[in-house]
Amino acid sequence: xxxxxxxxTLNCGSVLTKEVxxxxxxxxxxxxxxxxxxxxxxxxxxxxxxxxxxxxxQLNELEHHGLVSKTIFPELPPRVEYHLTELGQSLLPVIxxxxxxxxxxxxxxxxxxxxxxxxxxx
Amino acid sequence: xxxxxxxxTLNCGSVLTKEVxxxxxxxxxxxxxxxxxxxxxxxxxxxxxxxxxxxxxQLNELEHHGLVSKTIFPELPPRVEYHLTELGQSLLPVIxxxxxxxxxxxxxxxxxxxxxxxxxxx
DNA sequence: CGGGATCCCCATAGATACTG
DNA sequence: CAGTATCTATGGGGATCCCG
Lengths: 122, 122
Description:
The structure is a homodimer.
Chain A: H1 13-21, H2 26-34, H3 40-46, H4 52-64, E1 68-73, E2 79-84, H5 86-104, H6 106-113
Helix pairs in contact in A: 2-5
Chain B binds a DNA duplex through helix 4.
């Protein structure tokens, strides 16, 4: 019988942070929401290569993790807005640090990652 | 990640950072190496639940990404040491920020992650 | 001691179609 | 416009065995 994957050692804080950010579009979504991109349709415009389903899945995860809140307006046409919670806002500086490090070392990183990441203009 | 289908948007720096840290044990490995745990056998002692193979895979990735350097001593018994490169050292503050955020919000996060695990499909 | 090679499971996420 | 259901498949990571 295949045993469940070895649980992550949650006593390591960085692993918790990685867990919360785990997902292909999460950091981008959080940054986008922080910048005012709050409606799903706008997010799709921001990330045209992400499917609606995946965005929904990740938004749901972000919501369940307490990083964003979801507001449904009972209108026609339907309107939904996502906002950062306090916890989500507290994560922004962390994303910002990651953002800066990634940008600062973009050249070296892209070279090293070149075999794994295809270039996409987006 | 799934770059063969849809490549990650590399114009987002945080995605680069996530790519580099992508892997179950990478942040722990980097922190360990920074603290002087440089030999594979020591890493296994530090992470007894990680298999040797996975540690090797992730160490190879870290090396390939330019975060660590590998030194092989042609001795008997064989000896190998990993050291942080400058790039790897520059990443330490980033991990530290993630570490602190994760620790600061441990309670809420563990609650949210546990709740997430409890949510099974109907 | 250190590092592969092989096999296998399942979580993430892509494509598509459908509902309200 | 927003969200869900089903299907598919890539690849991360676990177990195990074998080599220098």
